[in-house]
Amino acid sequence: MTDPIPTSPPLQTASSEVIRDINRRIVLNLIRTRQPISRADLARASGMQRSTISLIVEDLVENGWVIEGPTGRLPRGRRPTYLRLNDERAIVGVDVRPTQTTIALSDVNGKFSSQEAMATPTDPKVALEEMIARIKRIVRNSKGRKIEGVGISLPGRYDRASDRLVFAPNLKWRDVDLRTPIVEATGLEVELENAANACVLAAVWFDRMESFRNLVVVTVSEGIGAGVLVNGQLARGLSSMAGEFGHVPLDPEGPPCGCGSRGCWEVFGSNRAALRYYLESSADSAGLSFPDLLSLADQGNVKAILALETMANYLGQGMRMIVAGLAPERILIIGDLTRSWRRFGPIIEKQVRAQALTGGEVPAIVPVHEDGMARLRGTVALVLQKHFNTSREAVF
Fold it and tell me: How far apart are CA 252 and CA 264, in angstroms?
């Protein structure tokens, strides 16, 4: 006797509420990317009927997401009224780094009106207390603006399934719940993300990179992070650990890494690595920072130049993994090294080209001169995604 053939479950159809929500998000995102824009232009761009657009816009205006601006001029007919996002809606962004944490207030267009910095405590409980106090203060000083939520960029991996920071070797925090205490203390929604992923969001949302559906952002600072966009979605992987190229060993016999392994890419290609190279060749390096090292190289210091060139060669070698494994359309580089791209760029590109697969294209390697704001702008996009995107996982 044979087993019965299983039947497929009935197809699920979208409810009218779901369709309205999708249409609302499409219109809201069109206003964000094309503002100022008229209702007629929204109808043309979206393919929706003008009556549908009018209902959606009326709802967005009533709920304070959109405001009406000046009227335009046409040869004949009614003058169109232009729409734009209401910059009285604001987001608190928090950029946590191993040495310094920045808390800032931004509008929905990624424009910051205030920010303050604090040294990052080594104890996560102390850090949380200080962050909460500063978030509350920045909200009090926001002059009654509607706060949509708090976005937090972390120098490690945040597992959304467990809602905890699970991997941050340079921060030396382990298995920390950052979200719950902030939500309970402020009453605001809180979104957290790895710093490199936050930079991917910043690039797509505010740097007009939405035409690239496959790109990688490499952040170079105390360590090396990578945010990976695949087919328009952030690659997260098991336990949200996708993109940890900085902890792939280039030399198993190399220097110890904060992750517990040895010879990882970041111990050879990070800012700390460059400072180590200089320290090994010069006794006069007490208290030297990476920007100081860049300045010494610009002044012609041979040892500083050699240290930076060594770092650049290792950065290029590590990027071969990204090019061969992911074949992105573009690699964006973020960090203080972009200030001296004339020194780093040719070396990195030469290393990548030297290992290009036969017949394969080499992606453009582009420095992002963002003055340290990419992570913060990414925290803004992190909060806004839930309002603008038709899919939680999609970046745009």
Answer: 8
